[in-house]
Amino acid sequence: MLRVLLLTLSLITIAHAELCKPDAQNAFKVRLSIKTALGDNAYAWDANEEYLFKAMVAFAMRRYSSKSSTQISNVLLCNVTDRVSFWFVVTDPSKNVTTVPGSEVEAAIRMNRNRINSAFLLSDKTLQFLKITSTISPPVEPSTPVWLIVFGVVLCIIVAGIVFLVVAGIKQRKRKNKQLTERENLEEKCEVTVTVENGIPCETLDFKAGHINGVFAADDERFTSL
């Protein structure tokens, strides 16, 4: 009985070795860049991390299909390197000697990619499933509603237009007042009238101060008084 059990286990091990190998059918390669992502806080990849990876893949498979009975033992890892890269396959729980189709594994990984990344504190760039395309992060919704943003922009434009009209009106009023003042000053300067007599312009006689006729002034100078 013991021999039969050991023989069965050895056959299962050999079968698993055939199922999980580089470029095997339904196998996926994984590459982790823990040091690049976490720097001095990087953790070592060991058996515990491998167990967590198997658990996360089993979780993804079970979550992808509500009827799935995938266990951690159904996730096989092989060709693990020191630079933290390896291959994995998921075996069929009902048979355990065949693998789950790669399309189902890919769909389950894509569906739960964020959960897997979070478990290892990594991202799509530092936790790479080489045959599985990266998921597109959902768009970030702004905390402020779009309609409120549009309303704020329109309100700012209206306020800016009102301010512009007020400032322009004040400047125009100052310009008109300045022109009116200059015109009044010019009219005051032109108040000195000029009379024209016999076609010759003459200055207006100032009756208060009097005006000396130059001809008579010259005659007075010729005759000296006694």
TrEMBL record:
Residues 1-17 form the signal peptide. InterPro entries: Collectrin, Collectrin_dom. PANTHER family: COLLECTRIN. The chain crosses the membrane at residues 146-170. Residues 24-226 form the Collectrin-like domain. It is a single-pass type I membrane protein. One of its GO terms (cellular component) is plasma membrane. This is TMM27 protein. The keyword Transmembrane helix applies. It holds the Pfam family Collectrin. GO terms for biological process: positive regulation of amino acid transport. It is found in: Cell membrane. Keywords: Cell membrane, Glycoprotein, Membrane, Phosphoprotein, Signal, Transmembrane, Transmembrane helix.
